[in-house]
Description:
Blueprint lengths: L3 E5 L3 H12 L3 E5 L3 H8 L10 H6 L12 E4 L2 H7 L2 E4 L15 H10 L7 E5 L7 H12 L6 E5 L9 H6 L4 E4 L3 H10 L10 E4 L1 H32 L3 H9 L20 H14 L7 H24 L8 E5 L14 H11 L3 E5 L4 H7 L4 E2 L3 H5 L4 E4 L4 H4 L3 H7 L4 E4 L6 H6 L3 E4 L6
Parallel strand pairs: 1-2, 1-4, 2-3, 4-5, 5-6, 7-8, 9-10, 9-12, 10-11, 12-13, 13-14
This protein binds uridine-5'-diphosphate-xylopyranose.
Amino acid sequence: MPLKITVIGTGYLGATHAAAMAELGFEVLGLDIVPEKVEMLGRGEMPLYEPGLEELLRQHVAGLPGSSGRLRFTTSWEEAGAFGDVHFVCVNTPQKHGEYACDMSYVDSAVESLAPHLTRPTLVVGKSTVPVGSAARLAKRLAELAPAGEEAELAWNPEFLREGFAVQDTLRPDRLVVGVASERAESLLREVYAAPLAEGTPWVVTDYPTAELVKTAANSFLATKISFINAMAEICEAADGDVVKLAEAIGYDERIGKKFLRAGVGFGGGCLPKDLRAFMARAGELGADQALTFLREIDSINMRRRGHMVELAREAVGGGFLGKRVAVLGATFKPDSDDVRDSPALNVAGQIHLQGGQVTVYDPKGMENARRVFPTLGYAPTALDAVRGADVVLHLTEWREFRELDPATLGEVVTHRRILDGRNALDPELWRKAGWTYRALGRPRA
Ligand code: UDX
């Protein structure tokens, strides 16, 4: 009998994992505690934007014309407990309000709600990013609460997907990391991730704490790379150097590599910023806070980028925002996503608005979420409408649509042809040729 799989939580991670498991041929039941989400997904509609995901979902959701019928959704823990041989926990672990630590309440309650319905041998697999030590604690809790006792086992299998590339990262991962406490757990996971997914994919089999740490270490390293290049951008600005050339040149050294060296307004999103902070908080609890004090600096370099962008915008409009129109291109934390969590773009827009600027935002996919988070900002239906009458244009999320804008057309509707490129993604020559004053973070002025 092929394994049956449940996926708990249907956010970016869970929805993608559920659809990917169905694509691999498993019968899958997705669970979410929000009935509206379950209803939407059951109709083959995505509550969020992720390239290619809705199409994949529609190929498998039961009841849709031409679908494999292998994927269903529910709000019932009882149904999930009875259905699954392997249960993936994909709920989020946001930053606690006013603290560095992450909020484990969704993970804890997922395990506590599911466990009483586990009456036969099963494997619960944590995928969420958690503080080291959580898996050991949850394994104990699971065995206490499940009627199956120790036969309800836990494994930790961190997920490394990037938003915007979630489907391909899930179906073709660059590595699989599993933290297990038994051979049975490992062999069940090998069955789940059998070919074609795992063909040629490196496996790292380890214990719980190492598996948990791999994720936070990877995210900390990526954040460090970004803040490193952003620190170099600060130096380049002070010394009239060019951080884009600098990044290209150091990137030719294979030990450094070219990726994740794009200087700009810094990192945001639901992962990197909060994972860094939760990692520092956990290190403190473990008495190892000194090991991670550098992450505090990584975080503050990152946050400084946003303030710096606001300063450059203020300077561009003559020293104060009152009565000035500021167009903001981009609201999401990165392109090809509708996610505005901890978005540098929206943060910069918000700061300028609070300082009296008349801000108009346009984003290809993030408008609905941005409006919900920041309803008092101005929003426009197109990039051209957003820049109409602008004293300065800020490019803060590097959507392809913005790279393809025609500077001459935009130039006809703005009040002043000034653009600040917060992502170093536009072609300076193109804009300057069309009569714009183009300025970018970490690059010479002219
Ligand atoms: C990240 C990790 O990459 C992924 O492995 C993990 O599973 C979740 O967290 P994600 O948050 O989707 O993924 O986005 P990522 O592509 O890592 O970008 C994060 C932020 O860094 C974005 O705001 C992006 O704009 C910024 N960034 C990225 C830079 O500023 N410069 C770069 O060179 C790269």
